[in-house]
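Let's practice the habit of predicting before peeking. Look at the sequence and jot down your guess about where helices and strands might fall. Then scroll down.
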Amino acid sequence: MGLGIGIFLAALGAILAFAVHAQVSGIDLAVVGWVLMAAGILGILIEVAVFAPRRRVHTDYAAPVAAHTVVRRDVF
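Done guessing? Here is the structure:
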C-alpha cells in the first residue's frame, strides 16, 4: 500500500466515523470508518518504516578528483 492510499483510507475512515450520520441496515458505518482509519494509519506506518529507508539516496559533494597523468613504460 502506498502512502497516498494510506492517507486516502484514513481520511475516508474519519469521514465515515465522524461525519456520516446515515443508517444502513446491517452495517455500522462508524465501525467501518474506524476500521478504514486503522488500515490507513497502519499502511502509512509500514510505508514509512519499511520502504522509506530504501528510497534514500546518498550524494557525495566532495571535491572532484584531479586528473592523473598515466605514463606507460614498456619493459623489454
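How did you do? Residues 53 and 59 are 15 Å apart (CA to CA).
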